[in-house]
Amino acid sequence: MEKARRIVWPGKRKGEKQMLGTWVNVAAVLAGGSIGLLVKKGIPQQLSDGLMKALGLCTLAIGITGSLEGEDSLKMILSVVIGALIGGWLDLDGKIQRLGGWVARRFSQEDGGARIAEGFVTASLVFCVGAMTIVGALQSGLTGNHQMLFTKSMLDFVSSLVFASSLGAGVLLAAGFVLVFQGGITLLAGVVAPFLGEMVIAEMTCVGSVLIIGLGLNLLGVTRLKIMNLLPAIFLPVLLCVLW
Predict the structure, then answer these.
(1) Is residue 2 part of a domain?
(2) pLDDT at residue 8 above 70?
(3) pLDDT band at 87, cuts 50/70/90?
(4) What dihedral angle (degrees, nearest 10) is formed by the CA atoms of 31, 32, 36, 37?
(5) Could you tell me which of 232, 116, 120, 98 has the C-alpha nearest to residue 175?
(6) Quick one: DSSP state of residue 220?
(7) In a domain, 12, yes or no
(8) For residues 175 and 127, what is the distance between their CA atoms, to the nearest angstrom?
(9) CA distance 143 to 163
(10) What does the pLDDT average to over 193-197?
């Protein structure tokens, strides 16, 4: 994840394909993930376990770095607490686990449903939390400038390759989350842009990064947090920043 210090929205250019940057990003995740799955078959179990721990440490570092973006710890705490209540009530983790089980049965995956769900949640958050995602999507929707999303696509290609080699096929499903989350911001850019100023993006990055820290701890085997139940927390800073 990278910082986006300034947000400037020039007039929209006619004729530009708004979703081009997101489609390229989705393709990069699928391509990197597919290569990662092929590479995984040739990795001995001992090396695979070592790679998983290394991935957990890197994920933890990404989360800690991003969590420093926020400036209001109270908003972060409220977002995570309220988000946990909403996610628990909706049982988002249970739904993702069932989806993972269905995919595992459908494609006879050795990983099993829980493994697929872990790969999906981990990759989705890492790919979609951060200023680069939000600002890049807004730029694509408002100006037709996809440069930031093209850069992000290269980063996600490498990340998806590494994630898939350790976490399996669930990483490929994260391409769908990228399409819905990032593509949704792009298509609704004109509506949501006024609510996504620098402060809001910073707080969303902070909250999302706290969830990524939880992912890192899960990958290291330290905790078994139901991170998917915390997902609504990412969107709550928008509301909290509007209210105060």
Answers:
(1) no
(2) no
(3) very high
(4) -30
(5) 120
(6) T
(7) no
(8) 9
(9) 32
(10) 89
Report d(CA 213, CA 211) in Å as an integer: 5
Cα–Cα distance, 188 to 205 (Å, whole number): 19
33 vs 173: CA distance, rounded Å: 9
* C-alpha closest to that of 126 among 68, 192, 34, 61: 61
Helix (H, G, I), strand (E, B) or coil at 145: coil
Residue 9 lies in a domain: no
Q: Is residue 4 part of a domain?
A: no
pLDDT for 53 beyond 60: yes
Q: What is the DSSP letter of 91?
A: T
Q: How many domains, in total, are found in the chain?
A: 1
What's this model's pTM, rounded to 2 decimal places? 0.84
Q: Are 40 and 173 in contact (CB under 8 A)?
A: no
pLDDT of residue 64 exceeding 60: yes
The mean predicted confidence, pLDDT, of the chain is 86
The answer, yes or no, to whether residue 24 has pLDDT greater than 50, is yes
Give me the domain span that covers residue 139: 20-243
Query: What dihedral do alpha carbons 222, 226, 227, 232 form, nearest 10°?
Result: -150
Alpha-carbon distance of 117 to 45, in angstroms, equals 20
Q: Are 186 and 19 in contact (CB under 8 A)?
A: yes
Q: What is the pLDDT of residues 135-185, one digit of tens each?
A: 999 999 998 899 999 999 999 999 999 899 888 888 999 999 999 999 999
Task: Report the alpha-carbon distance of residue 54 to residue 99 in Å, rounded.
Answer: 27
